[in-house]
Amino acid sequence: MRFRFGMCVLALVAIAGLLAGCGFSTDTAATVGGETITRGEFQQATADGSTTLTDLINDRILLLEARAQGVTISDAQVNAQIGDDLKQTEQAVQQQHSQALDALASSAAQQLRPIVNAHGGTALADADLVKVVRQQIDVIQQALDARPAGFASDVPDRLVNDQAIGLTNAFSAQGFFVPPQELAPTVGQIAQQLNSPQNNVTTADTFQQNLAQLQFTSASYMQNTRRQLLSEALRPSWYKPQVEALTLQLLVADNQAKAQEAVQKGRAGMNFDDLVKTYASANAQSPQVVNSAGSIATEGLNPSIRSSFPAIKEGEYSEPFLAGSSGQYAVVRIAKVEQRAPTAREEQALLYNWLHSLYSKYHVTINEAVVPLEQRPQ
Question: How are the residues of the chain apportioned to helix, strand and coil, as percentages rounded to the nearest 5?
């Protein structure tokens, strides 16, 4: 999992007071625990928008806290993790390839069914026909793989004819004979698809594509891997096996007056289902809309919404808030409060909040002359 320390709906620690500027060199973007994040480092890391100053600060805090706790990650550990990532990629590529071949076998079997039936193969079940074709596909793939390197882009007629004979023999073993010349067109199509570039993507190609999609260079990927291992090594400091979670229900009304009246009636004891029927917009009464918020960890709830509940307990209603740009207003009801294991996203929030709790320990300061307002930690 790639730990990005983005805000999303995470509960943010108030750090404005910790970020007051002090005396800086013009080459400094920020300082963390006496260490400097230079202007060049900041500008290079944030140039493509995939990394923020908050990411740089959190990375530095992670390293400093690891050092303080005597936690280190060796190059061997990083390389082992990279090896595991490559194995996972290889398994995914193999699974996708196998699924593609299964689909190809199913399609080819449908194409061959009339020919098979015309030559006495009506008793061969569809599933068994697909199995015979799938086995022949593996043989065709082996024949393609055995070609000399200089001929790898071609599918020679002889290969197609030989494989058509092979499929004829496979059908003969099932009790009927299909002339190979009638099978050759389908076998040729199979061979062409197996020979296409899309069918020959390597694990290395896929791995590089994955890195590109995540906007990783090789260097930043290794850095992220080390960060991930450090985060895991420091897990006892930030992880909670159980978090308080709220199952939320949403009432979206046409205007603020209706939403406010719904809150008043709800707090007075009116049944929530009746509130939805009476006050919710016509397009917001379905269970899919009402239950769309799902279960959210309390500390991950938007702070302004969280503070609008009189208390965090079952049956409480938030104050109305503007829902988008349509003029509708929403009200949130706490349907259930429970303790449960955090989700992967909520683990990210736990790590993020723990790092922010260390801002005072490592005295984070921002050079406001270098860092634009919109790029400063919130």
Answer: 55, 10, 35
